Amino acid sequence: MALRNIKGLACEIKGQLQFLQNPNLLVFTPLGGLGPIDIITVNKKTGEINLYDVKAVSLRKSSKTYLDKHGYKVTNKAGYKIYRKLTQLQKKLGVKILYVE
């Protein structure tokens, strides 16, 4: 198994452990580990369902300046967190990104 896959699985387990601290949450994972959702939580008291895509926290190694789509100058600084985008399907499903150290 590739090192990247192992890191991803470790992050998913850490995310599950975070949710398991709350006794009101039931935590589920999709069979096979593929797809737009990594963790599903159900609140036993409220019935609220949340869908999560787990991502490892990544920090920028170097600074970069560019123009955004509106022509504004944007600088990504070294050491700052890299934010990930949801896919169209994830947006449609209401998936949230869970960043794990």
Write the layout of secondary structure elements.
Layout (H helix, E strand, L loop, with lengths): L2 H18 L4 E4 L10 E5 L5 E8 L7 E4 L5 E4 L11 H6 L2 E5 L1
Parallel strand pairs: 3-6
Antiparallel strand pairs: 1-2, 2-3, 4-5
Description:
The protein is of the alpha+beta class and about 100 residues long. It has helices spanning about 5-20, 90-95, and strands at about 25-30, 40-45, 50-55, 65, 75, 95-100. Strands 1-2-3-6 form a four-stranded mixed beta sheet. It has a two-stranded antiparallel ribbon with strand order 4-5. Strand 4 (about 65) and strand 5 (about 75) form a beta hairpin. The mean pLDDT is about 90.
